[in-house]
Structure formats: C-alpha cells, structure tokens
Write a structure and sequence with these properties.
The chain is built from 13 helices and 17 strands. Helix 2 crosses helix 3 and helix 7 runs parallel beside helix 8. It is an alpha/beta fold. It has two domains: 165 residues, Ribosomal Protein S5, domain 2, CATH 3.30.230.10; 156 residues, P-loop containing nucleotide triphosphate hydrolases (Rossmann fold), CATH 3.40.50.300. The termini are far apart.
Length: 347
C-alpha cells in the first residue's frame, strides 16, 4: 500500500516542500530511504522503528521504501522522522490516509516517541500552504506561529500527533510567544564614566548607522563601549525583527518557545574565526557571524589579529548588505546589513 504526505526541508533561510511517499509492500523485510537524503535522514530509520515500537504501535515486517521528492535536491536534518513514521502507519493500515490530507508534517523523534525541538521552525512554517495546516513538535509550535496566517498545531509525542490527526485537528492552535531579547547581555552607556569623545562617536554612529573604529591602549574601555552600542540603537520598526529572528532560527540559536527578537543582535567572533564561520558556509550553507549580526552590531576586537583573507571577505557584504554562498548544488543568499565596530591597540 502507498501513502503520500507533505513535509519540508531547509535550504538556506527558506524551506521548500517535500513530498514523502511511503510504500509498504511484499518482499524481504527491509527499510530504505531514497531521494538524495543525507546521513541524518538515513539514520531516521532507526529512530522511527524504535519510536513506533516504544509507542505501542506495530512496525510492519515488510519491504518499506520511502521516497523524498523532488529527488534532485539534497534533504538534510531530522525533521522527516514524523512524516516517515506516520506514512508507515498509513501505508500499513494503522492510520486513515485521509487524516494526512492538507497537513504539512515535520518533527524529530526520540526513541521513546517524544518529539524534539526543531531548528528553523519559522522558516518551515513559511513553506506550509496558506489553506493547509502545520503539525510539528509542541516545543517549536509557538515559534512557527509567528507566521500570522499559518494554522500551527503542536504535539508532544507521536501518539498525541496521531490523536490530533484522527480528530481532524480540532485542538487549539498554537499562538505566537512574546518577544525575547537577543544577543549578549546589554551594557548601558550610562555605565561608562568619562570618555566623552568616544561616547560622542558612539552616539553619532548609532544615529547615522555608521561603522566605527576604536583605537586605544589596553584597558581604556574599547570593548565596554562597543557592547554599549546596541543599547542606544533605535528599536526594531514594525516587521523589521522578523528577518533577524528567522536567521537565528535557522542557525538553531533561538531557545524553544522564543518569539521575535526584541533587541538588536550583537556578535563578537574571536580573531581566529574562519572565513566560513564569518560569512557563512558549510555543506548545507548556514548563516555566519555577519548574518547573525544582521540589523545589529558586528564587533571585531583586536582587529589587526584577524586574517587578512577573512577581513577581505567583509568587503562585498558591507557594500551590498548581503552575501551569496555558491556551492555545486546551488547558491544561497543571506542578508548581512550590520554596523561594523573594530577595536585595536595603537601599535
């Protein structure tokens, strides 16, 4: 028997829909996943088998084939555990297939059937159809509900997800959480004593969105001044916080149940940071420090200690406000409009 259902996968800051097809047929018992899955997706076999059995459900000892379409795009992450498990139940007659219609399913399963928090829940919510519903782990549901027109439902366990689907999703929809403060602990400019010229420079930079270079001997307060800068920047305007929140969500830096960032981000990478760590990259490109500082402050302490190659990588993002990372499988663009603050000793 064949079951078809919808899920989604992350690609940069965006998510794309994935059709999950599960076939349970005669033949030697086996479980294979096709459709260009990465290692974490292939390992879902073991998690799904254990979760089904520990949830008191039957795992069919038959030939099981799971296809993730489109097959020409690499699928990464563990968010396919829930749709694969529900597809197996539907294909083996343990769940009515009509329960899965019009519902996008994402979630990672623990071995006991508990649903774990997801990275990029807000981006996944934007891949859901406007007239459909999204079912995902309860710990990530409120973050996904930041999309105002999404019908988002959360479940704690595989059993509860089955119960929600069987009841036609009559449960209460998830509501977006209150805003949270992002970035590191804020330093108030009032804590800085003296340094009239430096304080004036900070105020001018904050008012005009200018970059800043602080030069002075060790111990004169360059780092303290830089950390005070986010506190005097203008608050986020309407809708401006959504993009920085989305970046932190995809990077896995939003705590479960978090809402929109309330304070502008502040990032201070060490001078040993690599080029990929600063501008983003990796096999499945993830945002780097310049994107995590989007709409906020990027602080480079001990500026001359950074590699010249790494500093050269900042040229284009500073000019264009975005960075494009190209790989053999395609390219991803991350926003990177930030204020750059450097600090250096005189010699």
């Amino acid at each position: 028997m064949l079951a078809k259902l919808w899920s989604a996968a992350l690609g940069g800051l965006e998510a794309f829909p994935v059709r999950v097809e599960v076939d349970v047929g005669p033949g030697l018992a086996g479980f294979s996943v096709v459709g260009l899955p990465d290692t974490s997706v292939r390992e879902s076999r073991e998690r799904v088998i254990a979760a089904l059995r520990n949830s008191g459900l039957e795992f069919p000892l038959r030939r099981i084939t799971v296809n993730l379409a489109p097959a020409d795009r690499r699928k990464e992450g563990s968010a396919f555990d829930l749709p694969i498990a529900l597809g197996i139940l539907a294909a083996s007659g343990q769940l009515k297939p009509e329960c899965l219609r019009g519902v996008m399913l994402v979630g990672e399963l623990s071995l006991d059937g508990t649903l774990r928090p997801l990275r990029g829940a807000l981006a996944l919510a934007h891949a859901a159809p406007p007239d459909g519903a999204l079912l995902l782990p309860e710990s990530s549901a409120r973050e996904a509900a930041l999309r105002p027109d999404a019908r988002v439902y959360g479940a704690r366990t595989l059993r509860q997800a089955i119960s929600l689907l069987g009841g036609g999703l009559d449960a209460t929809r998830a509501s977006p959480p209150a805003p949270v403060r992002g970035g590191e602990a804020e330093v108030d400019l009032s804590e800085v004593r003296g340094q009239a010229n430096a304080r004036r420079a900070l105020e001018v930079a904050a008012a005009g969105g200018h970059n800043l270079l602080l030069v002075g001997p060790p111990g004169t307060g360059k780092t303290l001044l830089a950390r005070a800068l986010p506190g005097i920047l203008p608050s986020f305007e309407s809708g401006e916080a959504l993009e920085p929140t989305l970046i932190h969500s995809v990077a896995g830096l939003l705590p479960p149940g978090s809402g929109l960032l309330e304070r502008r981000p502040f990032r201070a990478p060490h001078h040993t940071v690599s080029g990929a760590g600063l501008v983003g990259g990796g096999r499945g490109p993830r945002p780097g420090e310049i994107s995590l500082a989007h709409r906020g402050v990027l602080f480079l302490d001990e500026l001359p200690e950074f590699s010249p190659h790494v500093l050269e990588l900042l040229r284009q993002p500073l000019e264009e406000g975005r960075v494009t990372i190209s790989r053999a499988g395609g390219s991803v663009t991350f926003p990177s409009r930030f204020m750059l603050v450097g600090a250096s000793n005189p010699c």
